[in-house]
Specification:
With 140 residues, this protein is α+β, with helices and mostly antiparallel strands. The protein contains four helices and four strands. It has one domain. It has a four-stranded antiparallel beta sheet. InterPro entries: DUF6166.
């Protein structure tokens, strides 16, 4: 399977931005929006809350993460950042700066799942303390 994330900018600057998930040329779904920073949805091309939301949701989807907090069971609490012990805020904020903030703001774009996974593997290897954090918070 060759998963591709595709972002679509609104034509008139007034509408929302959509991100879809494809397997090659076959549409799978709209990227699920796991609300944390931006109830109004995703954005890109700058370093704000909409891009942080997109970074977090792309990582959750590409890495096949599920809510795993023992305290709240995925409903969100002070300990776990909205039900997920990973991606951590440090991880998805860095992904936002590295990959999402630089996307063309008013154009479409593509990022492959393999690019996301490669970025995540490199980030994890340079942040070994995150494995301890996940274990402490009840994650995998």
């Amino acid at each position: 399977m060759s998963i591709i994330y595709r972002g679509y900018a609104p034509e008139n600057h007034a509408g929302g931005r959509m991100v879809t998930v494809w397997d090659g040329n076959r549409f799978i779904s709209v990227l699920p929006h796991v609300v944390k920073h931006s109830p109004s949805g995703f954005s890109w091309g700058y370093a704000g809350s909409g891009p942080a939301e997109l970074a977090r949701c792309v990582l959750i989807h590409a890495l096949e993460l599920a809510p795993d907090c023992d305290e709240c069971g995925g409903h969100g609490c002070w300990w776990c950042d909205g039900g997920y012990t990973e991606p951590s805020p440090a991880m998805y904020q860095q992904f936002k700066f590295d990959r999402i903030a630089g996307l063309p703001r008013d154009e479409g774009w593509e990022i492959t799942e393999s690019e996301v996974k490669a970025w995540a593997a490199a980030w994890r290897s340079s942040h070994p303390q995150e494995a301890q954090r996940r274990t402490t918070l009840g994650g995998n």
